[in-house]
Amino acid sequence: MAEQTSPGQTRHSAPEAESPRVRPLALGGVVFAVCVLAIIGSYHAIVGLAAIIDDDYYVTLNNYIYEFDITAWGWFHLLSGIVILAAAFTLFSGRVWARAVGMTVAGLSALENFFFTPYAPVWSAIIIALDILVIWSLAMYGRPVAHKVYGAPM
Question: Which stretches within the chain are classed as H helix?
Answer without folding.
Answer: 24-53, 70-90, 96-116, 121-139, 143-150
